[in-house]
C-alpha cells in the first residue's frame, strides 16, 4: 500500500528496489543450537516488505521477533531460507555470512542506545563514518543534519550523560541513519522509556519516516505502539514463532496521537489483543 503524500511528502527511497520489494524473506527460520540443546525460535517464514513501508513485528515475549529482526540485519544467520534486500541477496540459502553489499542498506537501532560516554553527541552519531575515513568536516556536517532530524540540533557538543533516555535513543536513531541506509530496523527502541516519552518518540519517528521515506521494520510488544505506527502489523505466534496474522492499518498520515482514542483504533487493538489471547 502506497501512502498518499500529505504535506508534499518526498519520493520514497527506492534504492536497490529492483525486484519491487525492499525486503524479501523467503522460508527464513531459525533454530538455535547450544549447550541446552536445540531451540526452534522461528518456523520458516515468508514476507515481502514494500519500499517505504512501515512494518511492525508484534508478538509475545520469546516468540522470535528479535531473532527475525537480527537475521534481517545480518547479525545472525538463518537456519534455512533466504533474505534479499532490494535486489541484493543478504543471505542466499545456505550462506553462513551476510553479504557486505546488502549490509550497507541497513541501519539498526537496539533497545539500549549504547552510546560512548566519552564522546560528544555528534561524534557518537558520526562514529560509523570514521571507519570509512570520511573527513571530520563532513562527519560533523552529516551528524548535524541527522541531529536536526531527530530534534537534537542543540545538543551536538554535549556528552551522553547530559541527555535523557529518550534523547539518547534519538542519538542512536541518528547514528543508525548516518550512512543513509534505505532500511531502518528497530528492536523495541522505546521499550525502556516511560509512557509519555514513548508517545513523543513515536510522533518523532513517524515524522522522520514521512520525511525520509525509509523502509522501517520495528519490533514491539506494545499493541498501541504497533497500531499508531504501522502500515502493516505482522503478528507472530508464541514460540516457535510463525506469522499468525497480518493487519493493515490505513489511517492517513501524519497520525495525531489522539488517533489512539478513535473507535477504529480501539477495534484494531482489540482484534490484536484477541489474537494474542489477551482479550
Ligand atoms: P522475542 O524478541 O520475541 O522476545 P527472541 O527472538 O529473543 O524473542 O527469542 C526467541 C526464542 O529463542 C526464545 O525462546 C529465546 O529464549 C530463544 N533464543 C534467543 N536467542 C537465543 C540463543 N542465542 N540461544 C538459544 N536460544 C535463544
Ligand atoms: Mg526481543
From TrEMBL:
PROSITE patterns: ABC_TRANSPORTER_1, ABC_TRANSPORTER_2. It comes from the Bacteria. Keywords: ATP-binding, Nucleotide-binding, Transport. The keyword Aminoacyl-tRNA synthetase does not apply. Residues 1-21 are annotated as: Disordered. InterPro entries: AAA+_ATPase, ABC_transporter-like_ATP-bd, ABC_transporter-like_CS, ABC_transporter_ATP-bind, P-loop_NTPase. Residues 23-263 form the ABC transporter domain. GO terms for molecular function: ATP binding; ATP hydrolysis activity. This is NitT/TauT family transport system ATP-binding protein. It comes from Thermopolyspora flexuosa.
Amino acid at each position: 500500500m502506497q501512502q498518499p503524500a500529505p504535506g508534499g511528502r518526498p519520493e520514497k527511497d527506492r534504492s536497490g528496489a529492483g525486484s519491487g520489494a525492499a525486503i524479501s524473506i523467503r522460508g527464513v527460520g531459525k533454530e538455535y543450537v547450544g549447550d541446552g540443546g536445540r531451540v526452534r525460535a522461528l518456523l520458516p517464514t515468508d514476507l515481502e516488505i514494500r519500499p517505504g513501508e512501515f512494518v511492525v513485528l508484534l508478538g509475545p515475549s520469546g516468540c522470535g521477533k528479535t531473532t527475525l529482526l537480527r537475521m534481517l540485519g545480518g547479525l545472525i544467520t538463518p537456519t534455512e531460507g533466504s533474505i534479499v534486500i532490494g535486489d541484493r541477496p543478504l543471505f542466499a540459502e545456505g550462506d553462513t555470512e551476510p553479504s557486505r553489499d546488502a549490509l550497507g542498506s541497513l541501519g539498526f537501532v537496539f533497545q539500549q542506545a549504547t552510546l560512548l560516554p566519552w564522546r560528544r553527541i555528534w561524534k557518537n552519531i558520526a562514529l560509523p563514518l570514521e571507519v570509512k575515513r570520511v573527513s571530520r568536516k563532513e562527519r560533523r556536517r552529516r551528524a548535524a543534519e541527522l541531529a536536526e532530524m531527530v530534534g537534537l540540533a542543540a545538543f551536538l557538543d554535549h556528552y551522553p550523560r547530559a541527555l535523557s533516555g529518550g534523547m539518547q535513543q534519538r542519538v542512536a536513531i541518528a547514528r543508525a541513519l548516518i550512512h543513509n541506509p534505505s532500511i531502518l530496523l528497530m528492536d523495541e527502541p522505546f521499550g525502556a522509556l516511560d509512557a509519555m516519552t514513548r508517545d513523543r518518540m513515536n510522533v518523532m519517528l513517524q515524522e522522520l519516516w514521512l520525511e525520509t521515506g525509509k523502509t522501517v521494520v520495528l519490533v514491539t510488544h506494545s499493541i498501541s505502539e504497533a497500531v499508531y505506527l504501522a502500515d502493516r502489523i505482522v503478528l507472530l505466534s508464541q514460540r516457535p514463532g510463525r506469522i499468525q496474522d497480518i493487519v493493515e492499518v490505513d489511517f492517513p498520515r501524519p497520525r495525531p496521537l489522539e488517533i489512539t482514542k478513535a473507535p477504529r483504533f480501539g477495534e484494531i487493538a482489540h482484534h490484536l489483543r484477541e489474537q494474542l489471547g489477551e482479550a
